[in-house]
């Protein structure tokens, strides 16, 4: 793919009402030792995040401030604005309330250089409660598309990839699971994803998040059915022809877990979906 000349990372960060968390998220990048990056902050609320970060003592020439062109246009549109403006070969995703851990860029840069497509284990946290659990922790390994979601069972923004191989965009028509849609597109260019079993990305569940907010379960069930239909129709071509069937198995198991999740939470207050999902995946 032509047009990219700089070896390094473009980090895409959409921001919507993120004043309370963005300094910590940006700081988690700046505190690392890997220097060759740009961090694109795409405001989707017309906020002045340059000033907000300056008020927190953060100023760095590698920070680029963009606007989505509207208010509440959605994270997919904001991310696409960032992808269109990105200057580096390697893409990494970071939400404005999540964190890079343990010098993530420094540790994954050689992996992206070698393998092209990399995921990392997650430290799943809840705002105000701290660590809940890890996802995908364990040995480093290559994941086929059929196996990908059986390791990375939740959240798909912990990835990095070389867009010289394939340079997809987010589906702006979706109201959830947009990260998974991007993963499905990436497997058209990559036969496998190299997975680092060390938690290098903190996923912070917020009360306002689409994943746990009002009506979240209905939205997720609807979109999972849509993705199954797309996969079965050949909408997502993959280098590994067994990949679509593996994603379908995961989504079908996840749908069964969704259908019983609300009842299970009444029986086990504080239950998180990742814990509830595990037995459904083991029998898929």
Description of the molecule:
The protein has 284 residues and is an alpha/beta fold. The protein has two domains: 1-97, Spore Coat Polysaccharide Biosynthesis Protein SpsA, Chain A, CATH 3.90.550; 99-284, no CATH class. Helix content is 38%, strand content 23%. The chain contains nine helices and ten strands. It has helices at 22-30, 49-55, 75-85, 104-115, 145-151, 178-186, 216-233, 243-267, 273-282; strands spanning 6-15, 37-43, 63-67, 88-93, 99-100, 117-126, 130-135, 141-143, 160-162, 193-205. Strand 1, helix 1 and strand 2 (37-43) form a beta-alpha-beta unit. The N and C termini lie far apart (38 Å).
Q: Summarize this, please?
A:
The chain folds into 2 domains: 97 residues, Spore Coat Polysaccharide Biosynthesis Protein SpsA, Chain A, CATH 3.90.550.10; 186 residues, no CATH class.
Secondary-structure map:
Blueprint: E1 6-15, H1 22-30, E2 37-43, H2 49-55, E3 63-67, H3 75-85, E4 88-93, E5 99-100, H4 104-115, E6 117-126, E7 130-135, E8 141-143, H5 145-151, E9 160-162, H6 178-186, E10 193-205, H7 216-233, H8 243-267, H9 273-282
Parallel strand pairs: 1-2, 1-4, 2-3, 6-10
Antiparallel strand pairs: 4-9, 5-10, 6-7, 6-9, 8-10
Calculate the terminal CA-CA distance, rounded to whole Å.
38 Å
Helix content: 25-40%
What is the number of E strands? 10
User: What would you call the shape?
Assistant: globular
SS summary, helix count: 9
Q: Segments where pLDDT lies below 50 for 5+ residues? A: none
How big is the Rg? Answer: 18 Å
Structure classification:
alpha/beta
Number of separate structural domains: 2
Mean pLDDT: 94
Biggest sheet record: 10 strands, mixed
Q: Per DSSP, what share of the residues sits in E-state strands of 2 or more residues?
A: 15-25%
The helix-strand sequence is EHEHEHEEHEEEHEHEHHH
